[in-house]
Design brief:
Blueprint (H helix, E strand, L loop, with lengths): L4 H14 L5 H13 L3 H6 L7 H15 L4 H5 L1 E4 L2 E4 L11 H12 L6 E5 L5 H9 L4 E6 L2 H13 L6 E5 L13 E6 L14 H4 L15 H9 L4 E10 L5 H10 L2 E8 L5 E8 L4
Parallel strand pairs: 3-4, 3-6, 4-5, 6-7
Antiparallel strand pairs: 1-2, 7-9, 8-9
Helix pairs in contact: 1-2, 2-4, 6-7
């Protein structure tokens, strides 16, 4: 039976709601727009029009995959972060609202310098570094990422947001001591893998079965990357430069202690929108 875009959207939203899908309204809208090749504005404009059969079939297929656990961002190949449209693939984590707290602190840190050099380490999609570049016009940003497929996504997002003049991408292993050729940075920001290895199998299926394990596994206690970055990347910061981390639930105090033991001062913890300690940051103190 023929149906309008609005009726199909309402049907998908109700099915997602009944299944307990997170944010069923956005999921229904994004998947239908993707199936139809329409923007949100075009969807609203055409909401009373009848849906072509091939579009309805495509929307039903996407809905079935989402109900089976596949995240919307991977199904449509894009997501928004800090107001920026980003290409997304299964090589990178899906940017989350909690990470915008880290991006905000990194932006504030970069604004404290005239022409800051900023490194987004373990960059994934490049979302944090691109947010900094978009809000700090004087910033020069390097997106450092190990995985080759993730690097391709970074480069696509640099081009998509017209930031190639100030943002570059480089293959970097955060676990290795940086080359002196990288120079020094005013700000290093990182959302590293931080899930304890044994906990990965307990994650929601949408994360466990679809998001890249390389970007999740933080070692036995989830702190491997914090240890190595504090130890090996401190000297890549200029004197009184800033190091900022996103951390997992219950990790803030441990990361704070690691930073202090590695010669960072004025270490602060910031909560996310749900009151969970989510960001830990500090300053390189030369006298330590």
């Amino acid at each position: 039976m023929a149906t309008t875009y609005n009726n199909l959207y309402l049907d998908l939203r109700q099915r997602f709601r009944d299944a307990g899908v997170f944010d069923p309204t956005r999921a229904a809208r994004e998947l239908l727009c993707s199936a139809a090749g329409k923007t949100n504005e075009e969807f609203v404009r055409d909401s009373r029009l009848y849906v072509p059969p091939e579009v309805e079939r495509a929307a039903e297929e996407l809905a079935a995959r989402h109900l089976a656990g596949e995240p919307v961002a991977y199904l449509i190949g894009e997501w928004e972060f800090y107001g920026l449209p980003l290409d997304i693939s299964k090589a990178v984590l899906i940017p989350r609202p909690d990470t915008e707290v880290l991006a905000t602190r990194a932006i504030e840190a970069a604004q404290g310098y005239d022409e800051p050099r900023v490194l987004d380490l373990c960059a994934g999609s490049g979302c944090i570094g691109l947010a900094v570049a978009s809000r700090v016009p004087s910033a020069r940003v390097l997106l450092g990422e190990l995985d080759e497929e993730a690097i391709k996504v970074c480069r696509q997002n640099v081009r998509r947001n017209a930031l190639a003049a100030r943002v570059s991408v480089l293959r970097i292993d955060a676990r290795e001591k940086p080359s002196r050729q990288l120079g020094e940075f005013d700000v290093i920001v990182s959302n590293p893998p931080y899930i304890p290895t044994a906990d990965i199998e307990t994650l929601d299926a949408s994360v466990r079965d679809h998001e890249p394990r390389l970007a999740l596994d933080g070692g036995a206690d989830g702190l491997d990357f914090y240890r190595v970055i504090c130890e090996k990347w401190r000297d890549a910061l200029r004197a009184y430069g800033k190091l900022l981390f996103e951390v997992g639930v219950g990790q803030a105090d441990a990361v704070l202690r690691l930073m202090r033991a590695s010669g960072f001062g004025d270490v602060q913890v910031v909560q996310d929108w749900n009151g969970i300690p989510r960001v830990v940051y500090g300053t390189r103190w030369d006298e330590i």
